[in-house]
Amino acid sequence: MNGFAEYEEYDALGLAGLVRRKEVTPLELLEAAIERVEARNPAINAVTMKLYDYGRKAIVDGLRSMGAKRVAVATAASRTRPLALKNSVVHTDSKPASSARFAASI
User: Fold this and answer.
1) Where are the alpha helices (DSSP H) in 21-79?
2) Are 89 and 74 in contact (CB under 8 A)?
3) What pTM was estimated for this model as a whole?
């Protein structure tokens, strides 16, 4: 695999540290992750809903802009909801979602 070859040597905190120290950009990390998904997914079919463009858009819009991420998440979720819940809107995050959103903003 090309790109960021050391990607798999780090956990999430290690990758966040690289971004914080400006050794790698968030977009480079996303592209490295996408590259790995594309290489491995045909054999295991674990990723069935590829939302790469939402990730790219979130990075372009700025990682701290919560509004853009909520729109992306709500749009993706609405595609997989039962018909009875189609028009329902969640106004608060669950604790795991809130924690993940906070971790992404560091």
Assistant:
1) 26-44, 52-61, 66-78
2) yes
3) 0.58
* Rounded Cα–Cα distance for residues 45 and 68 (Å): 28
* Lookup: tokens for 104: 């992404």
Residues 40 and 73 in one domain: no
**pLDDT tens digits, the chain, 106 residues: what are they?**
667 788 999 999 999 999 999 999 999 999 999 999 999 999 999 999 999 999 998 888 886 654 544 545 555 554 555 666 666 666 677 777 777 777 766 5
User: Domains in the chain: how many in total?
Assistant: 2
Domain that holds residue 30: 1-48
The closest alpha carbon to 55, from 4, 104, 5, 1, belongs to: 104
Select from 65, 64, 33 the least CA-distant residue to 50: 33
